[in-house]
Automatic annotation (TrEMBL):
Keywords, comma-separated and alphabetical: Membrane, Transmembrane, Transmembrane helix
GTP-binding recorded as keyword: no
Domain of life: Bacteria
Transmembrane segments: 5-20, 26-45
InterPro entries named in the record: TPR-like_helical_dom_sf (IPR011990)
Organism: Snuella lapsa
Protein name: Membrane protein
Region (Disordered): 169-191
């Protein structure tokens, strides 16, 4: 795992060597080294382990994604701020299957660090809404759900948002008991 600064140093070194190749008349080599340096610049902004974890997550392989994320030993030193947000976002998705309290911490940290894609931010807020609703914090859940709906501009989470709204409505409806209407006192009078 390379530190983020080392990636830029390697890219600068390759660009310097490409300029040397241009001055010596080896134009093809210079172009090839410039393209090679772009790989390191790309990896500065998009971490390779996070990309591999996303690929594993798309295949529903949580263990494989966790393995790739665990290769990042010190996220603060190795990742830029947005990558740290995605690091916490991915951990939140994986942990949400087992531990809601820990998942809530990861999602909140991901939102504060920032996510570059609106639908990822909407997904994080939708998950936080579900966690808040399960902890009986209905106002916070409703606020997060409306924020998620505003961020979902492409309609990718429409079904999940609709299902969450239906669950919230069902929870607000009073329970009806059929057959034995009335209070216990009225039931004793009848019986």
């Amino acid at each position: 795992m390379y530190n983020k600064i080392i990636k830029l140093i390697i890219a600068a070194g390759i660009i310097a060597f490409a300029i040397y190749q241009f001055t010596e008349g080896y134009i093809g080599n210079g172009i090839m080294f410039i393209l090679l340096s772009l790989i390191f610049v790309f990896l500065y902004f998009k971490n390779e382990f996070i990309l591999l974890a996303f690929l594993r997550l798309r295949k529903q392989d949580f263990e494989g994604a966790k393995k790739w994320l665990n290769k990042i030993k010190n996220p603060e030193a190795a990742l830029v701020t947005k990558q740290q947000g995605y690091y916490n976002y991915l951990h939140g998705i994986m942990v949400s299957q087992t531990n809601m309290n820990e998942a809530e911490k990861y999602f909140k940290k991901a939102i504060t660090l920032g996510l570059s894609m609106d639908h990822d931010l909407a997904m994080a807020k939708l998950n936080l809404s579900g966690i808040a609703f399960s902890k009986r914090r209905k106002q916070e859940a409703q606020r997060l759900l409306t924020e998620a709906q505003k961020l979902d501009k492409r309609g990718m989470l429409t079904d999940q948002i609709k299902m969450m709204k239906e669950n919230m409505k069902r929870a607000q409806m009073p329970n009806q008991h059929y057959g034995s209407g009335g209070s216990l006192r009225q039931q004793k009078r009848r019986g």
